[in-house]
Amino acid sequence: MIIGLAGNQNCGKTTLFNGLTGASARIGNFPGVTVEYQTGQVKGRPSVTVMDLPGVYSLTPYSQEEEVTGQALQKVDGMINVVDATNLPRNLYLTLQLTELGIPMVLALNMMDEVGDNAIDCGKLSKELHIPVIGISSRKKQGLQELMTAVCQQVESGAVTRPVVPVRRGDTYLQTARRRYEYIEWLCRECIRPVANKKTTTQRADALLLHSKGALPLCGGVLFLLFFLAFGPLAKAGQDWLEQGFWWLGEWILKMGLSAPLDSLVREGILRGVGSVLSFLPSIFLLFFGLSLLEDSGYLARMTFLADKPMQTIGLSGRAVVPCLTGFGCTVGAVSAAKTMPSQRDKWLTVLFLPFVSCSAKLPVYTVVTQGVFPRFGFLVILLLYLSGILWGVLNTAFSHEFLMRGKSESFVMELPAYRMPDGRYCLRYALLRCGEFIKKAFTVIFLASLLIWGFQHLTLTGSFTFSFDQSILMRWGQAVAPFFEPLGFGNAQTAAALLAGLGAKEAVVSTLSVLTSNISALFTPLSAFSFLNFVLLYMPCMASFAAVRRELGTTSAVLAFLYQTGFAWLVSFGIYQIGIRVI
Amino acid sequence: MLSELKPGQTGRILRVAGEERLQHRLYDLGLLPQTEVTMVRKAPLGDPVELSLRGYSLSLRLSHAKQIQLEERLL
Prior knowledge:
The complex is a heterodimer. By secondary structure, chain A is α/β, with parallel strands linked by helices. Chain A contains 25 helices and 8 strands. In chain A, strands 2-3-4-1-5-6-7 form a 7-stranded mixed beta sheet, with helices on both faces. Chain B has a 5-stranded antiparallel beta sheet with strand order 4-3-2-1-5. The longest helix of chain B is centred in the N-terminal third of the chain and has 9 residues, at about 20-30. The interface of A and B includes residues 210, 212, 213, 306 and 411 of A. Strand 8 of chain A pairs antiparallel with strand 4 of chain B, so a sheet runs across the interface.
């Protein structure tokens, strides 16, 4: 039995989905035409599958989300219409449209805990709409069993849902919409007991947080705090602690006395590769935790509101803020976050923008190289790199917007939800879920990449094993590619080999360099180091992001995008170095 | 036009212009003729705007707000 979850955006469908299926449920991604939807088995009811559909305001296809939802609803046996009980009038519009589909359905009044049990007369609502109405709280997991029982009963009894406000032949779109809203106004007067207006807190908060002069500095401050949390001393401490743990693990493996090649494979190949990525777990966790706190409180929606105008000028929409922020943690997560963009065009531009955002894996490269070459003002160089990455991204996106993908970004119609106290436990669960995905990535893609790099470091062209890096395939390839980097100021085999290794994971640039040379700063002059860092910032991101981009945009586009990015990186570094040696 | 309301002012929608697709979208969101809409604020950079109608708040780009004509007399 397939049950679809339909509802407006931001009404808590996905929370309900997670509550029904449980974190342990198998979640399959079925790529739709453009937007994906998730399905999962209901905990305790193995024969029931629920489908989390994109949030929509209406069934009239306007965005791709609505098309996907409309198509998916043709495949379901029954549906749960999730509505935000704190905002019934607008939510019920979709409900009326859904009743016209004739599919067995149940109305789930979500966030009942926020409005209070007596605020809405569920019995009356159910009688008027001719469908069961169940009050639930998806965040607190209240009423979920009751809801499932009701919907299963509807499907099994073959209940037919009848249109509440049938479309009359000959009516215009406007007349139909008006009749629906008139009915909703009447229904709400009958079924909702007027409650003390909760809006005032939100209004007062917005007067401050969206103040015409204060809002932007405040937003900047919040961003700074988020970064300080995710990449500041706390994250650093966690990272050190994890690295220490991996070091102990390495020592322990050393004591096992494995044969030399095997020991090298396990410790230098797998442990270093996977460990260097896993050590970013604290940053990823804190970033997602902070982001979900912002989202849950309602402030993230305000950030997209503030950022919409500047984003519009380069052809993006305010919603691109979320993937972009995520991109500072990990491009892979950010590309997945871009899935929620309202149109294909927006998704493209956003996904293509993301590699310009310095992900946290590039930070170790920046740190190690600047510490060696610019001991005194390394911090400034790193800041400059972060900012110039964004600047290049903006210029590139503006260029694509102007010449490749003209047209306006999808309309910015968005509800500004009421502020509420973020639910710490929910945010924690969310952040842990994302960490789980990250760990999975570390043990699959990064594991394989580390293995490959190790192989190339230790195999000669004739296929025999070697401990001398000069003989290895990686070094040979480095030598072969090195002339390509000559005009950029770093045409030596070690650097070239490190950049090749960086295709597996950006951290590998540092680990490879440290394996291939004892003194990294000896490889660079300050100018060539700066040129090198810019190349690292801009050239194609790691395999894992390639896989993610390929999934969203298709193979051809992903390959073209990455060739373009590498070419662009070359040009920028070329410019920096060639202008630099003439000026200095 | 709705886009010309000053923050705090309320008007009543006369009609929604623009291409049909957008028009239908705005109807779906409850921006129907005779609906009362309050301009809550404009974003610090002037676009988008936050509106209040039917008990919820909605943010809309200026270009869309310009398609919504109001009755002459403000409320």
